[in-house]
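4.2 Preliminary Data

To establish feasibility before requesting continued support, the project team ran the inverse folding procedure on a target of 722 residues. The structure was first converted into the token representation described in Section 3, and no sequence information of any kind was made available to the design step. The complete token record follows.
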């Protein structure tokens, strides 16, 4: 996020302690964050990991007596129940301990009094409530009052079954599922029970499923109905396993059975049945297509399978399924399964393995349907996406063009599906720095989407267009405002990305002039315009002009911004690269050193970003024939990369190769051979996984290459904050 957005970023994670193995999965929270990022988490005092307790903390105090009175009065007033002064004082005294003054306990207390108040003795219920010293015991009192309101033992038994089966499920249960599980349960009885349970904060609805409103309610149900132990919970889980397995045997792989069965097998510890369930292609397809990628991966890890084994087993299952597939409908279904497997493998990073199932999906659709069928275009689009990620742009372009042609023939030239293919091709051209072709396709796509929005009556779309028209009108009239200056800057960036450098220069100059008039010459926004103009002159090879503007921008940012501000780091880096390009290596050294210092302040001394800065400085020293100064920088960078990414990461391989070259130049041939061998082992492992070419000698991770090739266009010029 920090790399993509220049503004301040706040990430909020609620109830983070509810994540299983929170300390393991949230390790990144302990690392120093980028300067423009803040993270706020909410956590229970009792379950907060020890390492997190040192963070700046805001403790939410328990409710005071006034809050307690207000909450209880609100609940009682809604039921026209009036409490005496004595009763109010008694409640205030009771709600003073840590476990009785939280909002859930007090709300539940108010609901209990309000519910019983009209029909029973308030003093009696108050006495019972005051014996409950925490939320779980109060929930137990609520449940018993609901039980007492039921007319028969049969209804009480059904209440127990409903609560227990909802509790042991993964995501809750629907009303229809409960009635299928318990045929004796009538609609009238279910409606009455659910009304009481919902009203008293036990159950709630989510995505059409009944689930516990608070985990304390589920804790109470376990105490009330499952005191006999784990075997009772296991029995209810087994009941659900049988119910959802029956659906599978009837070829009903619904999203519910796909959600529940693997999770239930996991909870039961039955790895064999979990493995068999995962190899049901329709279960895995259902989970993946609905975005449960991480969950699916977790199940496979639980049965002890790595990515490659998983891919092989899925492929074998598909081959077996294909043997029994006959007729157009089953072949179309088979093509869908192959496509899902290909997309899954792509998401796993197994690009070479992803090609085969996607290619097979394409072949089946071409044969079973028609070479010009829209579903064939879908296969072509998915296969092209893998080639793009694999950086085989030629293959991808051919496939995208085929998909575009089919879509145009099938839907017409102005259909949103055509716009999708145009956008995909535009993105591909942009990756190849073919900005003019990309822009033409984006314009065509925009017109199609604009027309579709009009046909849908999209008022929001019209509002945005009107707002943009007004902005352009203001720019034409020449009003000097910070917003107009920012818009001019953004237009300059846009034309730069289109490789229209002359027009870009006009807009960027006008933005700079307007900012200097409105904000003053020393304002950070002026530094942004100077920086962008410098990048443009650098691209035009007007290095002297670029140097002057970068130096001005650096001077402003040094005075206006914090020493570790990302914008300062941005200018330092690009001026250093320019000095290096111009052969002014002595002037580049202090800036590269400053870049290391800024990154250390921003991210901490062991962050991979610091290692990248160290490598860049080491490369510079090597060019200056100062191998002695370069060696410890490379070694420190290598240690950071190994600690951060592991010993087989490509960054480790690149740094080993740089060290090998350095050792060779110093005459230590044995060490050079050893380092180079390690680097090649990493490269071979990487090539086996995704293919690709080796990088050249003394490579860093970005700064030592030309701006245009090493950085994405979006990072070259700075957009205004939004």
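Position-by-position output of the design step:
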């Amino acid at each position: 996020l920090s790399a993509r957005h220049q503004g301040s970023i706040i990430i909020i994670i609620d109830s983070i302690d509810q994540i299983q193995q929170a300390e393991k999965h949230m390790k990144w929270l302990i690392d120093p964050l980028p300067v423009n990022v803040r993270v706020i988490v909410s956590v229970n005092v009792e379950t907060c990991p020890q390492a997190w307790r040192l963070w700046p903390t805001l403790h939410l105090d328990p409710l005071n007596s006034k809050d307690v009175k207000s909450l209880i009065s609100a609940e009682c007033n809604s039921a026209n129940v009036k409490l005496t002064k004595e009763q109010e004082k008694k409640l205030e005294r009771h709600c003073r301990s840590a476990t009785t003054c939280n909002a859930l306990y007090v709300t539940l207390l108010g609901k209990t009094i309000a519910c019983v108040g009209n029909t029973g003795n308030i003093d009696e219920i108050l006495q019972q409530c005051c014996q409950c010293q925490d939320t779980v015991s109060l929930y137990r009192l609520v449940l018993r009052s609901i039980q007492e309101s039921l007319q028969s033992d049969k209804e009480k038994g059904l209440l127990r079954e409903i609560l227990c089966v909802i509790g042991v499920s993964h995501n809750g249960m629907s009303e229809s599922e409960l009635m299928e599980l318990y045929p004796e349960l009538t609609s009238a009885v279910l409606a009455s029970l659910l009304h009481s349970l919902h009203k008293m904060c036990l159950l709630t609805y989510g995505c059409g499923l009944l689930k516990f409103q608070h985990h304390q309610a589920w804790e109470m149900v376990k105490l009330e109905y499952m005191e006999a132990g784990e075997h009772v919970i296991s029995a209810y889980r087994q009941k659900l396993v049988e119910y959802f397995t029956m659906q599978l045997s009837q070829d009903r792989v619904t999203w519910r059975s796909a959600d529940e069965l693997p999770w239930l097998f996991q909870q039961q510890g039955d790895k064999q049945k979990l493995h068999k369930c995962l190899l049901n292609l329709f279960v895995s397809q259902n989970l993946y297509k609905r975005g449960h990628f991480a969950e699916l991966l977790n199940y496979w890890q639980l049965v002890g399978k790595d990515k490659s084994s998983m891919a092989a087993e899925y492929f074998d299952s598909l081959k077996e399924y294909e043997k029994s597939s006959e007729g157009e409908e089953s072949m179309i279904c088979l093509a869908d399964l192959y496509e899902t497997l290909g997309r899954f493998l792509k998401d796993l990073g197994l690009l070479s393995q992803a090609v085969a199932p996607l290619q097979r999906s394409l072949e089946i659709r071409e044969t079973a349907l028609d070479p010009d069928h829209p579903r064939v275009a879908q296969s072509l689009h998915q296969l092209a996406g893998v080639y793009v990620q694999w950086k085989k742009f030629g293959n991808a372009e051919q496939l995208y063009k085929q998909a575009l042609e089919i879509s145009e023939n099938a839907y017409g030239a102005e259909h949103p599906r055509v716009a999708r293919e145009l956008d995909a091709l535009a993105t591909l051209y942009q990756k190849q720095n073919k900005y003019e072709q990309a822009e033409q396709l984006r314009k065509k796509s925009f017109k199609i989407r604009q027309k579709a929005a009009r046909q849908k009556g999209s008022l929001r779309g019209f509002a945005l267009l009107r707002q943009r028209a007004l902005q352009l009108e203001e720019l034409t009239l020449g009003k000097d405002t910070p917003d107009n200056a920012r818009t001019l800057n953004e237009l300059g960036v846009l034309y730069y990305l289109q490789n229209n450098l002359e027009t870009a220069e006009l807009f960027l100059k006008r933005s700079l002039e307007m900012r200097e008039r409105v904000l003053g010459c020393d304002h950070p926004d002026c530094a942004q315009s100077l920086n962008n103009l410098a990048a443009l002159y650098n691209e035009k090879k007007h290095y002297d002009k670029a140097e002057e503007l970068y130096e001005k921008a650096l001077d402003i940012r040094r005075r206006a911004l914090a020493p570790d501000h990302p914008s300062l780091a941005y200018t330092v880096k690009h001026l250093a690269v320019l000095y290096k390009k111009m052969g002014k290596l002595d002037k580049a050294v202090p800036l590269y050193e400053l870049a290391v210092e800024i990154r250390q302040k921003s991210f901490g001394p062991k962050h991979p970003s610091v290692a990248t800065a160290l490598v860049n400085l080491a490369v510079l020293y090597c060019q200056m024939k100062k191998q002695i100064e370069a060696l410890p920088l490379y070694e420190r960078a290598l240690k950071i990369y190994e600690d951060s990414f592991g010993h087989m990461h490509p960054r480790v391989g690149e740094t080993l190769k740089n060290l090998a070259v350095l050792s060779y130049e110093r005459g230590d041939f044995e060490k050079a051979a050893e380092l180079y061998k390690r680097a090649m082992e990493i490269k071979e492992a990487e090539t086996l996984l995704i293919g690709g070419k080796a990088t050249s000698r003394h490579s860093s991770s970005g700064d030592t290459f030309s701006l245009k090739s090493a950085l994405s266009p979006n990072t070259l010029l700075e957009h205004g904050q939004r």
